[in-house]
Amino acid sequence: MKTQIGAKDILFPVPPALIVTGLEDNRNIITIAWIGIVGSKPPAIGISLHKSRYSLSLLRQTGEFTVNIPSKSDYIKVDYCGITSGKKRNKFKDTGFTKIDGTKVKVPIIKECPLNIECKIIKELDMSDWILIIGEILEINIDSDKINPDGKVSVEKVNPLIYVPTIREYWSIGQKLGNSFDVGRNYNQTSQSTNK
Ligand SMILES: Cc1cc2nc3c(=O)[nH]c(=O)nc-3n(C[C@H](O)[C@H](O)[C@H](O)COP(=O)(O)O)c2cc1C
User: Does any ligand 1 atom lie closer than 6 A to the CB of residue 143?
Assistant: First the structure.
């Protein structure tokens, strides 16, 4: 049995990201849950902002932004950046997050976030009360100590924070289940042999 709960903006889990915007004397951080990769060549990311957000005007000023993926330990600061406006507060000062220079954009990245994505805006889409901003990904920065000797990112060391929008809860990541583009092959073999 299924329960229908109507047409709602529900999809979970998502990475609650810290988006840095703003010119040099006015850098701001906004927490964003409506985010996702939308293309690979060029690599592109979409973020959706309500039209009322102060950060939207800052994004339009800079034409660039950075996406910073926080560790689970920073969940309280992430929430703070999502309930406080940069119009009234300096969220860098309040949270103690450290700005470091981006390599491809003028907007800084957040040192304490293990994964940082540098983007330039290539498109804006009007979605009624929301604006979908598409950014081309120009560079990815990962804490060197969170890359395993085999060159793969260590999910355990990055320990990204997870957000469940519908129930408004922060969670941490669970355990690895398997490798993608791989475990499905075993399923095919098993089901084929079962069907014989
Ligand atoms: C977990 C979480 C996720 C959020 N996701 C979004 C989002 O995807 N888009 C958006 O416009 N606002 C989102 N918000 C709300 C903004 O972060 C919030 O309005 C913020 O105070 C705006 O900051 P600003 O005024 O400095 O731009 C989210 C808030 C929280 C706590």
Answer: no
